[in-house]
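Archive maintenance. Older records in this collection stored only the sequence; we are now back-filling the structure field for every entry so that each record is complete. The fields below show one back-filled record exactly as it appears after the update. Entries are processed alphabetically, and Colicin import membrane protein is next in the queue.

ARCHIVE ENTRY
Title: Colicin import membrane protein
Organism field: Algoriella xinjiangensis
Length field: 175
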Amino acid sequence: MKKLFVLVAVASLSFATSCKQETEKTTETNVTVDSLANDSTAIVTETTTTTTTLSETDAKAKLDQAKADLDAAKAKGDKAAEAVAQKAYDDANTAWTDAKAAVKNAAADVKEGVNNAADKVDEKATKAKEDIKDAAKDAKSDINNAAKDAKQDVKEAGAKAKEGYNNTLDKLKAN
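Back-filled structure field:
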Protein backbone atom coordinates (compact mmCIF):
# COMPACT_ATOMS: atom_id res chain seq x y z
CA MET A 1 0.00 0.00 0.00
CA LYS A 2 2.81 2.38 0.90
CA LYS A 3 4.67 1.57 -2.32
CA LEU A 4 1.57 2.27 -4.38
CA PHE A 5 1.01 5.57 -2.56
CA VAL A 6 4.64 6.60 -3.12
CA LEU A 7 4.48 5.65 -6.78
CA VAL A 8 1.30 7.65 -7.36
CA ALA A 9 2.65 10.63 -5.42
CA VAL A 10 5.95 10.68 -7.33
CA ALA A 11 4.17 10.38 -10.67
CA SER A 12 1.79 13.19 -9.77
CA LEU A 13 4.54 15.48 -8.55
CA SER A 14 6.69 14.75 -11.61
CA PHE A 15 3.78 15.65 -13.83
CA ALA A 16 2.98 18.76 -11.81
CA THR A 17 6.55 20.06 -11.82
CA SER A 18 7.07 19.40 -15.51
CA CYS A 19 3.78 20.95 -16.65
CA LYS A 20 3.48 23.86 -14.27
CA GLN A 21 3.20 27.28 -15.86
CA GLU A 22 3.38 30.42 -13.88
CA THR A 23 2.52 33.71 -15.50
CA GLU A 24 3.28 37.03 -13.95
CA LYS A 25 1.99 39.93 -15.99
CA THR A 26 3.32 43.38 -15.48
CA THR A 27 3.46 46.46 -17.67
CA GLU A 28 5.65 49.53 -17.78
CA THR A 29 3.87 52.80 -17.16
CA ASN A 30 5.30 56.31 -17.10
CA VAL A 31 3.40 58.92 -15.13
CA THR A 32 4.33 62.61 -15.34
CA VAL A 33 3.23 64.95 -12.61
CA ASP A 34 3.33 68.74 -13.31
CA SER A 35 3.00 71.35 -10.65
CA LEU A 36 3.79 75.07 -10.55
CA ALA A 37 6.63 74.84 -8.09
CA ASN A 38 8.11 71.50 -9.09
CA ASP A 39 8.17 69.39 -12.23
CA SER A 40 8.69 65.76 -11.39
CA THR A 41 8.33 62.48 -13.13
CA ALA A 42 7.20 59.38 -11.32
CA ILE A 43 8.02 56.18 -13.12
CA VAL A 44 6.18 53.02 -12.21
CA THR A 45 7.97 50.08 -13.73
CA GLU A 46 6.31 46.73 -14.13
CA THR A 47 7.86 43.89 -16.06
CA THR A 48 6.10 41.09 -17.87
CA THR A 49 7.62 37.67 -17.31
CA THR A 50 6.36 34.25 -18.14
CA THR A 51 7.97 31.42 -16.25
CA THR A 52 7.57 27.86 -17.33
CA THR A 53 8.93 25.32 -14.90
CA LEU A 54 10.71 22.56 -16.77
CA SER A 55 11.57 19.08 -15.72
CA GLU A 56 15.10 18.70 -14.42
CA THR A 57 16.33 16.84 -17.51
CA ASP A 58 14.83 19.41 -19.89
CA ALA A 59 16.36 22.24 -17.90
CA LYS A 60 19.77 20.53 -17.95
CA ALA A 61 19.50 20.03 -21.72
CA LYS A 62 18.66 23.71 -22.23
CA LEU A 63 21.56 24.70 -19.96
CA ASP A 64 23.96 22.56 -21.99
CA GLN A 65 22.64 24.07 -25.24
CA ALA A 66 22.97 27.61 -23.87
CA LYS A 67 26.56 26.85 -22.78
CA ALA A 68 27.37 25.58 -26.27
CA ASP A 69 25.82 28.72 -27.82
CA LEU A 70 27.81 30.93 -25.43
CA ASP A 71 31.04 29.15 -26.28
CA ALA A 72 30.28 29.50 -30.00
CA ALA A 73 29.58 33.24 -29.62
CA LYS A 74 32.83 33.71 -27.69
CA ALA A 75 34.73 31.82 -30.38
CA LYS A 76 33.30 34.10 -33.10
CA GLY A 77 34.16 37.20 -31.06
CA ASP A 78 30.73 38.75 -31.64
CA LYS A 79 30.06 40.82 -28.51
CA ALA A 80 26.33 41.28 -29.16
CA ALA A 81 25.80 37.56 -29.75
CA GLU A 82 27.94 36.80 -26.71
CA ALA A 83 25.80 39.08 -24.52
CA VAL A 84 22.61 37.43 -25.78
CA ALA A 85 24.10 33.97 -25.30
CA GLN A 86 25.29 34.89 -21.79
CA LYS A 87 21.77 36.04 -20.88
CA ALA A 88 20.31 32.81 -22.29
CA TYR A 89 22.91 30.79 -20.34
CA ASP A 90 22.09 32.63 -17.10
CA ASP A 91 18.36 32.08 -17.63
CA ALA A 92 18.89 28.38 -18.39
CA ASN A 93 21.08 28.02 -15.31
CA THR A 94 18.39 29.64 -13.16
CA ALA A 95 15.74 27.34 -14.68
CA TRP A 96 17.91 24.29 -14.01
CA THR A 97 18.49 25.36 -10.40
CA ASP A 98 14.76 25.96 -9.95
CA ALA A 99 13.96 22.56 -11.45
CA LYS A 100 16.41 20.81 -9.12
CA ALA A 101 14.91 22.63 -6.15
CA ALA A 102 11.38 21.72 -7.29
CA VAL A 103 12.31 18.05 -7.57
CA LYS A 104 13.99 18.15 -4.16
CA ASN A 105 10.92 19.83 -2.63
CA ALA A 106 8.62 17.34 -4.34
CA ALA A 107 10.65 14.45 -2.97
CA ALA A 108 10.52 15.98 0.50
CA ASP A 109 6.76 16.44 0.18
CA VAL A 110 6.35 12.81 -0.91
CA LYS A 111 8.49 11.61 1.98
CA GLU A 112 6.48 13.73 4.41
CA GLY A 113 3.24 12.42 2.94
CA VAL A 114 4.40 8.83 3.24
CA ASN A 115 5.53 9.40 6.82
CA ASN A 116 2.19 11.02 7.67
CA ALA A 117 0.31 8.14 6.07
CA ALA A 118 2.43 5.62 7.97
CA ASP A 119 1.81 7.48 11.21
CA LYS A 120 -1.93 7.51 10.56
CA VAL A 121 -1.88 3.79 9.80
CA ASP A 122 0.01 3.17 13.04
CA GLU A 123 -2.50 5.30 14.95
CA LYS A 124 -5.41 3.39 13.43
CA ALA A 125 -3.75 0.06 14.22
CA THR A 126 -3.17 1.13 17.82
CA LYS A 127 -6.77 2.30 18.10
CA ALA A 128 -8.02 -0.98 16.63
CA LYS A 129 -5.85 -2.93 19.07
CA GLU A 130 -7.29 -0.96 22.00
CA ASP A 131 -10.82 -1.49 20.70
CA ILE A 132 -10.18 -5.23 20.42
CA LYS A 133 -8.82 -5.31 23.99
CA ASP A 134 -11.90 -3.46 25.25
CA ALA A 135 -14.21 -5.80 23.35
CA ALA A 136 -12.37 -8.83 24.78
CA LYS A 137 -12.70 -7.45 28.32
CA ASP A 138 -16.40 -6.81 27.77
CA ALA A 139 -16.88 -10.30 26.34
CA LYS A 140 -15.02 -11.85 29.28
CA SER A 141 -17.17 -9.89 31.72
CA ASP A 142 -20.34 -10.96 29.91
CA ILE A 143 -19.22 -14.60 29.91
CA ASN A 144 -18.41 -14.47 33.63
CA ASN A 145 -21.80 -12.89 34.39
CA ALA A 146 -23.56 -15.52 32.31
CA ALA A 147 -21.63 -18.27 34.07
CA LYS A 148 -22.59 -16.86 37.50
CA ASP A 149 -26.22 -16.64 36.42
CA ALA A 150 -26.11 -20.20 35.07
CA LYS A 151 -24.49 -21.44 38.29
CA GLN A 152 -27.19 -19.73 40.35
CA ASP A 153 -29.89 -21.23 38.12
CA VAL A 154 -28.34 -24.71 38.51
CA LYS A 155 -28.27 -24.28 42.31
CA GLU A 156 -31.91 -23.22 42.33
CA ALA A 157 -32.88 -26.08 40.05
CA GLY A 158 -30.93 -28.49 42.30
CA ALA A 159 -32.65 -27.12 45.39
CA LYS A 160 -36.09 -27.48 43.73
CA ALA A 161 -35.25 -31.00 42.60
CA LYS A 162 -34.15 -31.90 46.12
CA GLU A 163 -37.28 -30.37 47.58
CA GLY A 164 -39.43 -32.25 45.05
CA TYR A 165 -37.60 -35.49 45.85
CA ASN A 166 -38.09 -34.98 49.58
CA ASN A 167 -41.80 -34.22 49.06
CA THR A 168 -42.17 -37.37 47.05
CA LEU A 169 -40.45 -39.39 49.77
CA ASP A 170 -42.70 -37.87 52.42
CA LYS A 171 -45.79 -38.82 50.40
CA LEU A 172 -44.52 -42.33 49.94
CA LYS A 173 -43.87 -42.68 53.69
CA ALA A 174 -47.34 -41.45 54.48
CA ASN A 175 -48.97 -44.05 52.27
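Update note: The two ends are 84 Å apart (CA to CA). Residues 4-8, 15-52 have pLDDT under 50 and may be disordered.
Entry marked complete.
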